[in-house]
Amino acid sequence: MSIIASVFYWLTRPFIRTKVVIDDSLDLSTLSQNQQISYVLTTDSFTDKLAFEQACREHNLASPFSKLKIQFKSFNRTFGVKPIKSIFKNEKTHMRDTLAEGQKILQQVELSQQDVLFVPVMICWGRSPGVERKATDDQNKIGIWDLVAATIQATPLRKFFIVLFSGRHNFVRISKPVSLQKMVANHGTSVDAAHKLMRVARIHFERQRLVATGPKIMARQAFFNSMLASPALKRALQDEMKTKDISLVEAKKNANKLLHEIAGDYNETYVRFFSRILTWVWNKIYNGIRVHNSDELRELAQKGHEIVYVPCHRSHMDYLLLTYVIYHQGLVPPHIAAGINLNFWPAGPIFRKAGAFFLRRSFKGNKLYSAVFREYLSQLFIKGYPVKYYTEGGRSRTGRLLPPKQVCWR
């Protein structure tokens, strides 16, 4: 590291803490002994490299601030696939320089016949999915959390707020490296080849970010309004009006009340807070937690598959431990189907903030409730939120697995 980078690393160390997730197929012991590696980041920003420096020191990897030497030439060890917003260099110039640097590395690998490993590194400042804004919203209104939420291609001012508020919740995912010699053999060393590789890397990082944070969340009431405008609920509202001889306003009021009873209100801050508490609890009561097949799960989520978790329910630790493991494996926590009996103060609001949505034990005799719940669950799947539910219908009192309960929507 240079003197300047070293000074900033120690100055920012109290404000940055990284959680590293490594693909199971990646052998870090072999990678740590290889100096011929180059890191591909979303953006080649100074603060991103400071955060990644912590992960490199923890796992004995080459520093992102060091130089990559290929035969007799030196190159930067990192480069970003997206431009940095800067007053000194516009985005087109930045991308042109990055493409030129990438092409030079490819040409040098071809010339020297010396292989270099490209290691994709996704850096996420915080795991908040962000709020989905509608076209009618005032785009000029920017609050403090909007500054923090803009974690990609952020200006220096926004990066300051990001480090200040989200620096200790930094998430780093290191993926399996790619051989540059194979890239050269398959795609050549032209500018078009370098541009294509960067485009593929951008898509790769965007999918990984979505796996870690989940899709953006709509404002609660806006989400309800969009559901009330769906064809299925419009028909259910018409039936409610005819059956109970009430107006459309009263029918919508009843449906809105049911939505407030059912819907979760996911907040990543609550998940992060309880993650710290549960870390302390697990360290007290367990010797260790083994997780298998997490790579397969991350790969499925990255390919765009809808993830539905169907665990057993032998104790109250099940839903706590599974959600905790999912979060720490770099996946977004699921929306969890919970019995209405758990919706009491103060547990109900806390569970709701952690992603729980509540359902009654029986839908019999209430067509509007059935239609509202069906539409809510349908919207969760459409928007791409992972869901977890227990087929046993409740907790096992004996500790044994129970047969799945049959669900009837009407």
From TrEMBL:
> Could you state a single Gene Ontology molecular function term?
acyltransferase activity
Q: What is its EC number?
A: 2.3.1.15
UniProt cross-references to SUPFAM superfamilies, sorted A to Z:
Glycerol-3-phosphate (1)-acyltransferase (SSF69593)
Catalysed reaction(s) here are: sn-glycerol 3-phosphate + an acyl-CoA = a 1-acyl-sn-glycero-3-phosphate + CoA
Q: Where is the Phospholipid/glycerol acyltransferase domain?
A: 307-407
UniProt-listed Pfam families: Acyltransferase
Q: How does it sit in the membrane?
A: Peripheral membrane protein
Report the enzyme's class at the first EC level. Answer: transferase
Q: Which PANTHER family match?
A: DIHYDROXYACETONE PHOSPHATE ACYLTRANSFERASE, GLYCEROL-3-PHOSPHATE ACYLTRANSFERASE
Instruction: Indicate the family of this protein.
Output: Belongs to the GPAT/DAPAT family.
Protein name per UniProt: Glycerol-3-phosphate acyltransferase
Organism of provenance = Psychrosphaera algicola
Species classification: Bacteria, Pseudomonadati, Pseudomonadota, Gammaproteobacteria, Alteromonadales
